[in-house]
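In this notation, each integer encodes one residue's backbone shape. One such record reads:

___
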Amino acid sequence: MKLKIGAVKFEVIEVDGLKDGKVELNGHIVYSDQKISVEKKLKPDPKKITILHEIIHGIIDHAGGVQNERQVEMMANGLHQVFMENKKEMKEILWGEK
């Protein structure tokens, strides 16, 4: 899957045993490689939240903002909840579908 954030297309890939050194990660965005890596073993909802989390990092970076990991995590969880519990309404808001 590819996602466009700003002017950049990122490839979303699933990775077994995603790590940064010795630290296990659920997700990671690498701007220079245009890749978002997501831990393959995640269940569906945590995987969705992780992808949202990395998208938020990408948006903030593209806009030249300051990254705050806690705020990114709160936004990812909040957006996931709103999107999942309001699917019909989100289709109408975002795409004009009734």
Q: What stands out?
A: The first helix runs from residue 44 to 63. The mean pLDDT is 96.
